[in-house]
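FW: tagging you since you asked about this chain on Friday. Here's the raw sequence from the shared folder, copied in full. Didn't touch anything.
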Amino acid sequence: MVREVLVYPAPGLKAVAAPLSAIDGVAAGLAADMIDTLRSFPGCVGLAAPQIGVALRAVVFDLSGHRKARSCHGLVVLFNPELVLAEGSEVMREGCLSLPDLTANVRRATDIVVRGLSRDGEEIVIHADAFEARVILHEMDHLDGYLFLDRVASLKHDLFQRKVYR
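HL: got it, structure written out here
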């Protein structure tokens, strides 16, 4: 089911999400809703549970066929993700469904390792680089109540009005 995406300043976007205690039917339903919601937005590559009003540590991402992707693990649902390693650094423009009118230059690690639980409850480890690393880190930030605005070095120089073409 496609869920409504919270838009800043919705309070749920600034809260820390709780870990899932079990990968069960509730987790499966959440994963399905997150995938449906992600796919309902053309060009969207990631979504975190807090963005749909669920304060649980779950992210979904899919960079399949994306022109900026170097590493690509396809469609991934990750419960209780943890950052194991972050290396490198690069500034790139980011956008977010929860801040639909803005983009910003954000510095993030370029090579990461994350681990978490799959939809089957199995531990998975993901090595990601470049754009995929950025997407994963962006979605994991949502789990701790951070938006990309919190990572902008200068609101005056690094924040931009999104260009919308109709």
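FW: DSSP finds three helices and eight strands in the chain.
HL: agreed, and Residues 141 and 147 are 7 Å apart (CA to CA).
FW: great, closing this out.
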